[in-house]
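To close the section, here is one more complete example, presented without commentary so you can practise reading it yourself. The ligand is magnesium ion.
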Amino acid sequence: MTAKSTIEHYQSVFLGCAIGDALGMPVEGMKPTQIQKYVGRITEFIDPVEVRNDKGALICIDEFGKLGYYNIKLFAGEYTDDTIRTIALAESLIHCKEINLEDIAQRQLAEYTKRLRKDGTVKGGFGGTTIAGFKNLQAGKSYQESGVIGGPGNAPGMMMHPLGLYMDTKQVTEGIEKILQAAIAIGKITHLDPRSLASGVVQAHAIYGILNGNTREDFLSAAEAVCRRFEQPATQEFSLAEQGSLLERLEWTTSHQDVSTEEAHQHLGSGSKVYSSYPFALFMMQKYWDDPVEGLIATVNYGGDCDTTGAIFGALAGARHGLCWPKEWMETVQNGEYLKKLGSKMWEMKRE
Ligand SMILES: [Mg+2]
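Output:
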């Protein structure tokens, strides 16, 4: 592998995450057919889509299925929990200059707490498992006992990109292995499902691998190899694992890397279960290996948990291509300048 990353690659991990998140945010949870019907095609930041009847009431089901409104009080260009948790992790790594699990947990909790509304809801589209974990932290549980089994959510995968940058900065002094183990511990702050935890390790390693010159083939085989090592097998406690492993889905992706995006979506799905959204985002990344903007637009328009598939794709593509995004996206995404600054600060850690 040849190291060829620059400060722009670091910056674009954060910008790409936020841009993908913000592109998917307005239609989070919708099916592709619903996006086609109500938007046409997502190609820019728009306000959250609201479908209303003649009396002005929100419609919760149409001929294609349910319509969920996860981000209804956000505005065009704003990002959600994926980027919020990514930023909190990066801020902790920058501040502590090491992996400090207590600090990471408290910073993530603080981001959640400050978005709580008086009516008990929370701004930012935080998932159920994440909220349950944060409630445990709020109740005084330690970061080692706050995580819950909940649903097999994709939070570890969607927020672990800064750990991949950290790995790139510390590969010599701390070693990759120790940092991969830390990805599991960070994931466990909220999630205990073995597939969710594995997605976090795979994502951190994928960012690191791309920064260090991984090819499309390396990218897929490394994802599979890391998942094989870190995904714990199903036990009675983890009964949800009976629905299938993340590894099976990544193996499918490797052996079907050239199928159409349609076929991949049919097989993997793009919903909020980590064994759908995570491998789907990786499939799209390798499929659009040299075409980040088209790839991100295609990913988001497959709907489902598309703020998250967008965030994962965007972070990976940012690591590969640097500041490849349309100028308008980089200038209008929420906190764009600050996101770039986070990338610069992590880059400084590499030089120190
Ligand atoms: Mg989200």
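Once you have examined the tokens, check your reading against these statements. Residues 80-82, 125, 307-308 surround magnesium ion (CB under 6 Å). Residues 18 and 83 are 6 Å apart (CA to CA).
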